[in-house]
Amino acid sequence: MAKSVSDTEMGVRDSAGSVSNHAGNGSHFYIEEPSSVMQDQLQEDHPKSAHRLGHDPWYQLGLLLAASFNCGYILGFSNFIMKPLGWTWGPLLMAVVAVISIYANWLLSKLHIIDGKRFIRYRDLMGFVFGRQMYYVTWILQFLLFILGNMGFLILSGGALKQIYMEASNSSKMTLQEFIIISGVVYFVFSFLVPHLSAMRMWIGISAFLTFIYIVILMKISISDGMSNSKNYNLLGSRADKVFNGFNAIASIIFASNSGMVPELQASLRKPSIKNMHKALYFQFTVGLAVYYTVTIVGYWAYGSSVSTYILNELSGPKWAKILANTTVYLQIIVSQHMFCTPVHETLDTKFYRINENEYSSYNMFVRFSLRSIFFTINTFIAAIFPFLGDFVNLMGSVSLIPLTFIFPSLIILKVKGSKISFFETIWHFLIVITFSLLTMATTISSFHSIISDAKTYHLFANT
Q1: 174 C-beta neighbours (distance < 10 Å), count
Q2: CB neighbour list of residue 356: distance below 8 Å, 6 or more residues apart
Q3: How are the residues of the chain apportioned to helix, strand and coil, as percentages rounded to the nearest 5?
């Protein structure tokens, strides 16, 4: 659980030791990339953290983002995005959301430093600008996103392991829940051995290599299947179902390229942090998005409206190829899920570590073992009860990611800059807030509609 909102979280001490909190007085705010002298001071002034800060080069984070967003989740996007939207709206909305997403993430990264103060957590930034209430709102939205996301990863890993087992043994004795439990144990071990984002350095290259392997296998076999398959691209369901499914697809598109944790990721970068974050984002939204787009569109082209929520199930290739693809997906997910969990681990570690000791000290290792074993035990149990991957994706995209990615940055700009921005910019940011607030409501309603529908079809601990 997060620390109470203290001086180090709701305001940042200035060089005289006083606490400055400008919420409610937008005229005092300014946003800029500070000088090297000021950045040295910022290194002393930003809130304490048990994790390493200002350490990583931009290309390390850029590769991590590109690989992590091309994890096993993309193997369901042909079903989640293209199947409900079809050939016209699918590619169009993916392109539109990509453009808006890179703008929103770019904008949020520029808010990393306000009034000469650096913010390493999104909730601290919102608390500084808007006060205690928005601190907690942001905290809840982020942690809901990270926890639900981790459950989705557990379901993905369990499904991949189950496919390996069934292909290798021609048996179905073991259930999905057993494989989810195995995955939970593996996630725990990895998170214990790799304590923070910077410690992932060696694993990022491995993750990218594993991604390359299963993408090549998937593309080769799915293109071959597509050349011989007869496909149906009709949108399924009643008119109401098509509307609900369409909004769910939009939520999935948003989920496909946004993290809701830009300040936390940016905190790991070397100076100048804003420029380096921009470089990492450009890499993610070019190289990274190109892979996700290609897999999503080719998968739908190859299998049409019958495409599975886990596209490797559709492959007609040799057994060894299916086993290798699922194995590399499984191993890559272990690395990817850790990135999305680091804000949770950072909060718990900062609260309970002895900050003045190394992360590998006996006390801190005991704390890390205890905290992460509890975290993954709870998540694994819930994922085993509700193994419905699509519902997790839709709910995360609607409830958490839309406000965190699109609404909050514009609200900060309106508050911080106030009358300093032009009339056009003011209208632009108001339109973003209103439009995406309405979209949040629409996609959330659609997500709950899907959950209710699935509840009628599936049972608890379903062996899907």
Answers
A1: 15
A2: none
A3: 75, 0, 20
Name 118's bridge partners.
Answer: 113
Q: Of 457, 454, 91, nearest to 292 (Cα)?
A: 91
Tokens standing for residue 241: 């179902």
Strand 12-13 relative to strand 19-20: parallel, antiparallel, unpaired? antiparallel
- Say how far apart CA 327 and CA 291 lie, in whole Å: 19
The hierarchical CATH code for the domain 56-457 is 1.20.1740.10
- The reported pTM is 0.86
Distances (CA, A) of 463 to 186, 258, 332, 386, 460: 20, 30, 23, 10, 9
List, in sequence order, every residue forming a beta bridge with 117; answer none if it has no partner: 114
Distances (CA, A) of 427 to 411, 414, 431, 432: 12, 10, 6, 9
For the segment 257-297, what is each residue's pLDDT rounded down to a tens digit? 899 999 999 999 998 999 999 999 999 999 999 999 999 99
Q: pLDDT tens digit string along 190-225?
A: 999 999 999 998 899 999 999 999 999 999 999 999
Distance CA 434, CA 436 (A): 6
Give residue 94's pLDDT: 96
Q: 123 pLDDT band (50/70/90 cuts)?
A: very high
347-371 per-position pLDDT tens digit:
999 999 998 888 899 999 999 999 9
Residue 237: predicted pLDDT: 86
Annotated domain spans of the chain = 56-457
* Distance (Å, whole) CA 442 – CA 269: 36
What pLDDT, on a 0 to 100 scale, did the predictor assign at position 451?
Answer: 76
φ, ψ at 397 (rounded to 5°):
-65, -35
Give the whole-angstrom CA distance, residue 225 versus residue 369: 46
Q: How far apart are alpha carbons 120 and 128 in whole angstroms?
A: 12
Query: For the packed helices 132-169 and 362-385, what is the interaxial angle rounded to 10 degrees?
Result: 70
DSSP 210-227: HHHHHHHHHHHHHHHHHH
Q: Classify residue 106 by burial, with Cβ atoms within 10 Å: 0-12, 13-18, 19+.
A: middle
